[in-house]
Amino acid sequence: MSVEFRKDKAGFPMFWVEEAKLYIHWLPITKIQFEFFMCDAPDNRFDATWYDEVLQLNGRISPGSIRLNNYWHAFLTGVTPAETQAFARWSGEGYQLPTLAKWNEIYKSLQKKPPIKDPLDRMGSLGLNQRTTTILQKLENVSNLAPAEYGYDRSLADQIFMRLGVMEWVESDILQHRWGGMGETYSSFHSSLFTPNNGQPQAPKEPEVQRLSYYGARLLWSDR
Q: Which CATH architecture has domain 5-221?
């Protein structure tokens, strides 16, 4: 299976989804990626006080410490759609949060595909730094284990944590408040019977102001 990869501004991988004609982040946005943004962001909202508030909901973990019983700490959660949109603008032209329709299109496509064998070897030409490589390897190990607990036949969608990752912000015109969530959380992170298989979003009551401990994001990129 041929796979085309690229790096985002923070040095994390994205890969090409042929059916959707765009790139998607290999992982939900991690804290490490957002910390690059915070160091460079012109918006002083994203200061140490802001980050402390976010980390109270889902604490930070070093890449080398990632295990099945704590891996969700690697992902950035507790952020609002507007805050993730700020990260998308910083990332550069063409980066955006997915619409509900696009997220579902990608998910259904990747659910039909087997996991990519030796993904880090495939990403070798990207020149990833050691910290990024470590977090990718640790999370790859987790994605081999977690689906089995739920009786899943592991797919490419599972490999990149579209299930058992975080709830990911999506934009939709069928929701009262514009923003909802797609994905599925691991039970030790957040007890939820929600599943993306039916294609319907979760709908928080106040998505623009609530800080939800299990809500993060994933970006798409296209030069079109």
A: Alpha-Beta Complex (3.90)
